[in-house]
Structures are given as structure tokens and as C-alpha cells.
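Bench log. Compound arrived from synthesis this morning; before running ITC I wanted a structural hypothesis for how NAP sits in the protein. Inputs:
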Amino acid sequence: MSTQTLEKPPVPALDEARAFAARRHQLFIGGRWVEPQSGERFATHDPATGAHVADVAKAMEADVDLAVHAARAAMEDTAWAEMKPNARALLLNRLADALERHADEFAALETMDQGKPVRDARFFDLPYAVDLLRYNAGWATKLNGESISLSGPGTWHAFTVREPIGVVAQIVPWNAPIAMAVAKIAPALAAGCAVILKPAEETPMTALRLAHLIEEVGFPAGAFNLLTGFGDSAGAALTAHPGVDKVTFTGSTEVGRLIINAAAGNFKRVTLELGGKTPCIILPDADVGAAIQGAARSIFSNAGQICNAGSRLFVHRNIFEQVVEGVSAIAEGTKVGGGFDADTQMGPVISSTQRERILGYVKGGLEAGATLRAGGREIGGPGAFVAPTVLTDTDAQMAVRREEIFGPVLCAMSFGDEDLEQIARDANASDYGLGAVIWTNNLSAAHRLARKLKAGTVRVNGGGLDPALPFGGFKQSGWGRENGREGIDAYTEVKSIAMAI
Ligand code: NAP
Ligand code: MG
């Protein structure tokens, strides 16, 4: 065999991604790239190797102030404030085209910065981001009000209009950086808001690259601003700033609470996508093979770092052992490694801090009496790797069962009969209410159970996301919805106009 055939195929656009990372990165404020006021920068690292990826500008309070002023100016400037809806749609579609053209480079940057398998970035995160732009572009021309019949004395012509809320601060986490950033900016820009985006400190690279595309396709100055920086400085300053009209946030429930308090000063509108502890329920009639695959995918994709990861598995006792064995076999057979390795099925977790946090939950569960069926250990390497893990014999009081772990850790439980009330009670025994998945071929049970679950999204016999389907949480999983009509309406204020005629 020649050495040629032993070589791994090259990762498309890896050189472009590396060249971009090596550039001098700045903040994007008011249509210009500017140095941070403090002159400070911070480093980001590849979680698979620990290697240095880039130095990025560290925005602080003074930069937040400049960005808010630039965004407010855009809301007053005719170029953005009076841009016709079809022109906003065109800009978003051009951005979608540009992102699609550069999808290989974005996927490589995402893997370098976040760790996920480059295949996942290229064939899930990027197409989803492109779809989000195109879907929301379509709404720009359809944000109409209603004409209303009034009952009071006199003759009236009354109607509502939807106006952009104004300046929106958008704070996103590190688990799906480009998809989260686009999920935030696309509806906000389609509605005519001015945006200030703060990516997570761990993963700023694709947001930086996106800002260059936004500049290239020609959004007016100040309509989009990018602040790279830390949550406790840049993030906190944004959420408290009186010039910000709305905050949209995805991340931890703990920071969500801080944001609610910070937003109270000027009654900012707030949309929060917080944690989850999604139950995955397998009824005895289900296609067991498909359910095993689905349950494993739901918790091990993105190394479990998904707010909607199916982290609690409820299975009918007749098929419990079969399912646990099946999911554990997938866990043990999963190739864990660097995201640029073509064989890798699961990448690293975001940092060694997260790895220790995840393993701490597993250890706590085992000490409290849980049984380990797969994984439960770190995988050596320079990076932060955790083996896909399956636990049984947990109880509802254990932290591993109750709290969002944000790692590849599944707790599997059995139920005895098909009492849908009891199944729903167990599944609903959580502070969270983001998602739920049911596996069954019983149409009646699927409908009845779906209505009993306290979750923002219920999926039957499958998973996934769609820009058209509202997404968000009941209970402590958040406030409001993203995606769909609800998602774009959340960037508008309704104004009622009544004229005596
Ligand atoms: P996080 O602290 O909630 O971070 C999310 C975003 O909020 C980041 O951009 C962060 O900036 C920013 N932020 C932090 N403190 C802030 C503040 N006081 N004011 C305004 N913005 C602030 O989440 P994390 O530290 O990345 O992860 C911790 C845990 O949160 C995870 O283990 C997981 O359980 C949960 N989480 C959930 C989701 C989800 O999709 N629901 C996503 C990520 C994490 P920095 O980057 O500087 O921290
Ligand atoms: Mg944090």
C-alpha cells in the first residue's frame, strides 16, 4: 500500500479557517472594525488539543456603550429604519448565500474552536444556519398587523402595526456557536431591529467570520454589531444598559436569572432559552431498534452539549434491558476523538472544567447507588474527552438525574405498566420543561401523552430542529419561543392605531 492511500483526506477549507483565525481580530461597531477601548485581548483554545486558536478583542463596558450608541443610531437612520421589508429580506438572503458559499470554512472554524466533528458542523449546523436566514428573510415582508372592529360609540378605523422593538442584545453559548448566533440575528434583523451579538468567550470564531460576511453583503452601519468578550463584563453591561430594548439569551438557568434582574431597570423585553432535562419515553409497542438509535443520538450528539439532549430515558420494563444494552453498546462503540479526524463520531467537551463537572455528576450518582452500564470515565488526550455514559438505578433526588449536566450522560429508568398519567408524572418531575421525545406506534397513546407532557416541544419517533417550528421551554427552561411566527413576533411591538372617521 502506498503512503498516499494511508493519508487522511484533507479537511476542506482548513487552510482558510487557519488563516482567518490568525488575523488580528477586532470588535465590529457601527459598521467598522475597531480596537477594544482597553486594548486587551483574550485567547481561545481548541478543546480537542488545547492548542491556541486565536486572540480576540475583549469588549468591556466602554465598548458596550459604543455599540449601544451605534445600534441606537441605526434605529434612527433612514438607511436601516426606513429600509423596505423586501430589501431587508434580500440582505438576509444574500447573507444566507454567502454563508452557504463559505460553509466549509465555517465548519472548519467551528470544529477548531468548539470541537464538534467537522462533518456535524458542515452537514448539520451550517445548513441549519443557512435555513434560518432564508426562513426569517421570508417573514420580513409578512409582519402585518390586523384591522380591528371596535364596539364603542362612533365610527372608527382601527388597526395594529408591528414595529421593531429596537436595540437587541443577543447573548449566545458555546455549544452550537454559528447556529445559535444566526438563530438570534436572523429574526431580529428581519423584523428591523438593530443587533448587538455577544458570542461565548470559548467560541467567538464563527461569529467573527459571520460579521465579515454581514459587512460584505452590505447591511447598513450599526444594524449589526459584534462584541467578543466575557459574560460577567460585556454580557452583564449589555443586559443592564438603558439603551438596550430587548435581551435574547441562550445558556444556563443561573445566568438567565441574572439577566432577568439586570433587565428590570428599564423593563427590557426578555427571551430566554435555558437548560433542559429532556425525557425520552419508549412505550412497549415502539420500533425498539429505531428507539435505541434515537435515544443514543439524542444524548450523545455534540457530546451531550445540547439544551434539548434526551438525558432521562424512560422505558417499559418488558424492553428495558434490551434498550439499555442497545444504548450502552452504542456508547461503548462510539469513536471519541478530535473533530477533524474522519473516524470521529463524538468530539471533546468544551473544556477541562466541563469535563470535571460532568464526571463529578457521574461520581456523585455512583456514590449514591447508581449502576454504571457504559462509560463513566475520561478519555485520555491533550483535550477534554468524556466517554459516553449510561447509568441505571438512579433516583429522582440525585443531582445526576435532576440537574442539567450538558455532557454525554444518560440516566435510564423503567416503568411498569402503560399508565400514561404515571409516565407523564415521572417525565414531568423536573424543574425543566424544554423538550420531550416519545417512541411508539400507538397513535392514541402518542397524542394523549404528548398533551400531558410539560414541554415546549414534543417529538414522536424522531428528533431535530426546524426554523418553522417554535422552540422554547415551559417552567425553568425559559421565557418565550424562538423560530416560527412566534420567534419573529418576539422582536416586534404591537402598536394599535384607532381613527375616528
Ligand atoms: P452561561 O454562563 O450561561 O453562558 C452563556 C452566555 O452567557 C455566554 O455568552 C456567557 O459569557 C454569557 N454570560 C455569562 N454570565 C453572564 C452575565 N452575568 N450576564 C450576561 N451574560 C452572561 O453558560 P456556560 O458557562 O457557557 O455553561 C454553563 C452551563 O450552562 C452548562 O454546563 C449548561 O448546563 C448550561 N448551558 C446551557 C445551554 C443551553 O443551550 N440551554 C447552553 C450553554 C450552557 P461567557 O462566555 O463569558 O461565560
Ligand atoms: Mg459562563
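What the model suggests: The radius of gyration is 24 Å. The CA atoms of residues 335 and 432 lie 31 Å apart.
ITC booked for Thursday regardless.
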